[in-house]
Design brief:
Layout: H1 2-21, E1 27-39, E2 42-53, E3 59-65, E4 74-78, E5 82-88, E6 93-102, E7 106-108, E8 114-118, E9 126-129, E10 136-138, H2 150-174, H3 178-184
Antiparallel strand pairs: 1-2, 2-6, 3-5, 3-8, 4-6, 7-10, 8-9
């Protein structure tokens, strides 16, 4: 009985919380990094931050700040690490891009970007964080990736086709015929 009343109290509390949160913005941010090598010894990071308002109200004065890139390790090539969006309507998105160039070699793990926004019904600024990025190696020696070996197709292709034809022939010979099996068991009158 006590467990049932505890579950009922928890359900009531969650429904009240859901009703309170239902009339406010809910900002979700996704941070992604794409590495590229335009030349030897040079590596660029294209950083993209996508903002989503998943709530039912508009978020105002949305400020995005991604200062997790130390100046001794990265140069800003294009864009800015911060952005201000006047308002983010419910269900809408906003994106921000900037490009960095690496200065040093090593392992790096960035922290999440900070998003602050204003809600008309609350005096204090609301704060959200983007998804963090996984650790990655800067200017690391990466072995070249082979996409598809055409020499293997030229070398083993005819062998594979002969084996598959022989296998298909054996299957057809060994499997019983479906049309003859049904007629052989009936007696003719």
């Amino acid at each position: 009985m006590a467990r049932r009343s505890l579950l009922l109290a928890a359900a009531v509390l969650l429904s009240l919380l859901g009703a309170a949160v239902g009339d406010s913005p809910f900002v979700v941010a996704h941070k992604s990094v794409k590495l590229s090598r335009p030349g030897p010894g040079v590596e660029r990071l294209a950083v993209t931050l996508d903002l989503y308002n998943q709530g039912s109200a508009t978020a105002y004065d949305v400020s995005l700040n991604d200062d997790s890139w130390p100046q001794e390790a990265f140069d800003l090539v294009s864009g800015s690490t911060s952005k201000i969006v006047e308002k983010l309507e419910p269900g809408s998105t906003a994106s921000h891009h900037f490009v960095l160039e690496t200065k040093v070699q090593g392992r790096f793990q960035g922290s999440p970007a900070v998003i602050k926004y204003r809600v008309p019904t609350k005096a204090a600024l609301q704060e959200a964080y983007s998804t963090p990025i996984l650790p990655f190696d800067i200017l690391a020696e990466r072995p070249p990736q082979q996409k598809f070996e055409l020499r293997a197709v030229g070398k083993y292709g005819p062998l594979a086709s002969v084996v598959s034809f022989v296998g298909a022939f054996i299957y057809l010979v060994a499997s019983p015929s479906k049309s003859g099996a049904g007629k052989g068991s009936k007696k003719r009158r």
